[in-house]
């Protein structure tokens, strides 16, 4: 289950317009009941909610979380919540995938490079805590996707982890 954002989904309380965790959790459980034997993954693209909120919804809804730390950063580099708040709460068994993309004031980059997201810190956390899920490298599309992917991979390999 991949949502563009929780703002445009049936996770909102109709009277106040606010996202209600209990409604979001109930909806995830309902979606999960449609295919009870299939694993369910919860991902929020372009999330405007703190990562700790989406983590709590995923866990209580019985879904594994796909995490993208770049979504934590606003265009000016400030965060919805400090990445440490998420990493201090998440258990590795609740993650199924971690996205790697870089964001700067210019937006999401076409190659992973220096920017708001500290990839070395993420890699250190994942490795130190025995993460076994997948890693997904995501770049903004260009007319040279293979070259961008290779340069991104080279950047990640140079990190001291």
Task: Please give a quick description of this structure.
This protein has 161 residues and is α/β, with parallel strands linked by helices.
Describe this structure in words.
With 161 residues, the protein is α/β, with parallel strands linked by helices. Helices cover 35% and strands 16% of the residues. The chain has helices at 21-34, 51-61, 83-89, 119-128, 145-158; strands at residues 2-3, 41-44, 64-68, 95-100, 103-104, 107-108, 134-137. The chain has a 5-stranded parallel beta sheet. Strands 5-6 form a two-stranded antiparallel ribbon. Strand 5 (103-104) and strand 6 (107-108) form a beta hairpin. The longest helix has 14 residues, at 21-34. The two termini are 32 Å apart. The model has no long low-confidence stretch (mean pLDDT 85).
Question: Strands across the major sheet, in which order?
Answer: 1-2-3-4-7
> What's the total helix number?
5
Q: Tell me, what's the shape?
A: globular
The number of distinct β-strands equals: 7
What pattern of helices and strands is seen along the backbone? EHEHEHEEEHEH
Query: What is the SS-derived class?
Result: alpha/beta
Mean pLDDT: 85
Low-pLDDT regions: none
Task: Evaluate the radius of gyration.
Answer: 16 Å
Termini Cα gap: 32 Å
Q: What proportion strand?
A: 15-25%
What share of the residues lie within helices? 25-40%
Q: Main sheet, how many strands, which sense, barrel?
A: 5 strands, parallel
């Amino acid at each position: 289950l991949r949502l563009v954002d929780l703002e445009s989904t049936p996770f909102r309380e109709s009277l106040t317009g606010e996202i209600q965790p209990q409604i979001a959790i109930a909806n995830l459980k309902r979606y999960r009941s449609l295919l009870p034997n299939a694993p369910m993954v919860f991902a929020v693209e372009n999330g405007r909610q703190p990562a700790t909120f989406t983590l709590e919804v995923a866990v209580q809804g019985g879904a594994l979380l796909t995490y993208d730390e770049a979504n934590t950063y606003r265009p000016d580099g400030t965060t919805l919540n400090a990445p440490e708040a998420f990493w201090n709460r998440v258990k590795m068994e609740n993650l199924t995938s971690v996205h790697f993309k870089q964001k700067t004031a210019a937006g999401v980059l076409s190659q992973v490079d220096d920017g708001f997201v500290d990839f070395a810190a993420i890699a250190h956390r994942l490795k130190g805590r025995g993460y076994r899920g997948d890693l997904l490298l995501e770049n903004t599309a260009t007319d040279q996707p293979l070259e961008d992917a290779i340069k991104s991979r080279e950047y990640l390999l140079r990190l001291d982890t």
